Amino acid sequence: MSGNLTIKDIAKYCGVGVSTVSRAINDDPGINAATKERILKVVKEFHYIPNNSARNLKMTESNTIALVVRGIDNIFFQSMFDQFQQETQEKGFDFLLHSVGENENVVKATVELVKEKRLKGVVILGGRMERPEEKLDRLGVPYVLCTVAHSMYTPEPQCNSVAIDDEEESRKAVEYLIRKGHRRIAIVTGREDDTAVGGQRLMGYQKALEAAGIAMDEDLIGYMKRSITEFTPENGYAVTRDLLARTDFTALYCISDLTAIGAYKAIAEAGKRIPEDTSVLGFDGINLGQFLVPSLTSVKQPKEALIHSCVELLADAIDGASQTRQLTYPAELLERDSVMDRN
Amino acid sequence: MSGNLTIKDIAKYCGVGVSTVSRAINDDPGINAATKERILKVVKEFHYIPNNSARNLKMTESNTIALVVRGIDNIFFQSMFDQFQQETQEKGFDFLLHSVGENENVVKATVELVKEKRLKGVVILGGRMERPEEKLDRLGVPYVLCTVAHSMYTPEPQCNSVAIDDEEESRKAVEYLIRKGHRRIAIVTGREDDTAVGGQRLMGYQKALEAAGIAMDEDLIGYMKRSITEFTPENGYAVTRDLLARTDFTALYCISDLTAIGAYKAIAEAGKRIPEDTSVLGFDGINLGQFLVPSLTSVKQPKEALIHSCVELLADAIDGASQTRQLTYPAELLERDSVMDRN
DNA sequence: CTGAAAGCGCTAACAG
DNA sequence: CTGTTAGCGCTTTCAG
């Protein structure tokens, strides 16, 4: 007995019907304990492993929830996987992490996955979507968007979502910098045409300046470079270098902690010290921030709450809740050592 | 036409046979262009998406190679995904990234995947294995191990593998520190019972000291804590704190860059400066290292070469090469700013 | 408690 | 070029 075993082979070898083998491997209650044990022993001995494709095909439904992520290399998202797994499993679901490539279409990939695995529901993490509900309703199963930035120019989505208010939190972040006595505040934001997270956080920046009566200076806006992957230290480094060469400022606001890491280097290379010469404020509150020197002050997304609510909303929807909800959580300022009080 | 469409529905709607639809969606050459176009239009209109389970079940073979990773949160592994995808696709394969959970069994998960997706081959990234070939031969398809540490106490594996010589590179790293005038060199290594990468790199450390006639001091060995996830900044921070409290040294060798990040913080908190008071040497050569202040001197794994060879070996094996090869690549010392010359 | 048989949705001969 | 048909390996009635 070699090569690719099937349930039939096992059945034949044990002298039983295939359905009996199926019962044995699936912990079906209606099976004689002795028979089951005998079969399981053979299964083990020959390392028989059922074919999931056949299983998925046959089963009318699974008990699985998937977390679909675009940008699996994003350290902030990564730090959320574990809790997602934890919480979904606590609710009694199986958990599946699915990464969508940068060049793939999220909706299509997700629909495909739902069909293939007969998913019970999905949570979609990050990314950016225009009118997501239009397309996502094709999923045929409940879903919730987690920290997905809706385009600023589309109406509120009619689907489950949980996130922070990017614009408002960004505004408060800059307001904090102003309160600390900074007037010339540069920003490292997303790409110039970013209407998602980057755009919203930039808008918050502008609002804060305006409210404080500080005139906008285009020179202080550092858009991420198209030629480099977004939200990476590399891009943060390059943009900050340009900023430093172009103008001067006492504080730098990076809309993503990862880019702040690159900014640190650019600032150091310019011979300036953080925070004495240049204060740096990040966003996201990634764990790594506390290990930077000086440790990075940052706006922390309430990951734990976001995830918890995501799973709860999804579970509710699977249980038949028809009302969709859009939850917004407040962020929290992690005051560490990278911002100086100039008052 | 709603709910879950099948190929049959499309066929009926178009007034053709299912095989014709199948041909249309699979770019089969033997189909009338007009018919094809008509079908594809309907497919698009109704958003029909074929069920992959059915597909995989039916197909006798795919053209897919999977990269199986245990520890998807490892930043060093993460930085390899992209090139793997690139290179496999260049060789004409489809690429699939599969993450194996910490509590799952790599071999079992991989066998399952191979069956489900009818994989052509697999590369297994990282992790640790005892006599991998015994179990992995059950895969039934070619595989290659990438940077997998073989247990020190088992004979050379009879399977394809590509990696660096962890012990030797580690020895050279410490030799470098000695050459720079350091005598009291502490190490942040893996867990105490680590016989894989951690154990091998530790052994290299010991050999280097021995060769230089420096007596071993148990106090200088910082084993990673069991209570914290391995190879994280957190663990590096905790271990370095202990080390600092326990003894003194002029250089700290971290067997993983990630732990070095934590070490930076512990050293700073102890009021010491890098590299003036304490030099730090990392291992892996992650990208982030250059953004630390001071930038991290590190032993760089030749990722590019490793990956390239992995894919090549696998492709050869798929093409029928029966000879297995174990390739070892030299690492390269990235001299940056965290090590001081005390001579 | 167990076995026979009917598909899950799809692809791949095989005839037309 | 196209339709019919036979399974892929499994779960699940339905009888026994």
Describe this structure in words.
The structure is a homodimer of 343-residue chains. Chain A has 343 residues and is α/β, with parallel strands linked by helices. Chain A folds into three domains: 7-59, Orthogonal Bundle (434 Repressor (Amino-terminal Domain)); 63-164 and 303-329, Response regulator (Rossmann fold); 166-300, Response regulator (Rossmann fold), CATH 3.40.50. Chain A contains twelve helices and 14 strands. The first copy, chain A, has helices at 7-14, 18-25, 33-45, 52-58, 75-90, 106-117, 132-136, 166-179, 197-211, 233-246, 257-269, 303-318, and strands spanning 64-70, 94-100, 121-125, 128-129, 143-146, 149-150, 160-164, 185-188, 221-222, 251-254, 279-284, 297-300, 326-329, 332-334. Chain A has a six-stranded parallel sheet with strand order 2-1-3-5-7-13, sandwiched between helices. Chain A has a six-stranded mixed sheet with strand order 9-8-10-11-12-14, sandwiched between helices. A two-stranded parallel sheet of chain A has the order 4-6. In chain A, helix 11 links the parallel strand 10 (251-254) and strand 11 (279-284). In chain A, helix 2 (18-25) crosses helix 3, helix 5 (75-90) crosses helix 12 and helix 10 (233-246) crosses helix 11. At the A-B interface, helix 4, helix 5, helix 6, helix 10 and helix 11 of A face helix 4, helix 5, helix 6, helix 10 and helix 11 of B. Chain A binds a DNA duplex (16 and 16 nucleotides) through residues 6-8, 11, 16-20, 22-23, 26, 30-32, 35, 50-60.
Short key terms for the protein model shown above:
Rossmann fold, six-stranded parallel β-sheet, 434 Repressor (Amino-terminal Domain), homodimer, alpha/beta, six-stranded mixed β-sheet
